[in-house]
Amino acid sequence: MQKKLEMLMNDGNTVRVYLPYGDNWYDYSVRRLKENPKMAGYIIKNLFLSIFRIK
Questions:
Q1: Cα separation of 5 and 43, whole Å?
Q2: Domain boundaries, the chain
Q3: Closest by Cα among 49, 32, 8, 52 to 17
Q4: pTM of the model
Q5: Do 15 and 9 touch, CB atoms closer than 8 A?
Q6: Exposed e or buried b for every residue in 13-34, given b needs 16+ CB within 10 A?
Q7: Which of 10, 16, 33, 34 shows a CA-CA span of 20 to 30 A to 24?
Q8: Digits of tens for pLDDT over the chain (55 positions)?
Q9: Which residue in 55, 29, 31 sits closest to 43, CA to CA?
Q10: What beta strand segments (E) does the chain contain?
C-alpha cells in the first residue's frame, strides 16, 4: 500500500490516511465494516502483507 500512496503523491494527488480514534473507535469501525464488507478483505490482506513482508 505504501508504494501506491507514494505513486499517488508523486503524481500530485493529495493523499490522506484515515484512522479512527477515541472512546468509540471500535463501534465506529465495526459499523463501517458492516456498511462496506469489502473493506475487511483489504484490511486482512494488508495486515498479512505487512506482517509477513509479502510483496
A1: 16
A2: 20-55
A3: 8
A4: 0.52
A5: yes
A6: eeeeeeeeeeeeeeeeeeeeee
A7: 16
A8: 678 889 999 999 999 888 888 999 999 989 999 999 998 898 888 888 888 876 5
A9: 29
A10: none
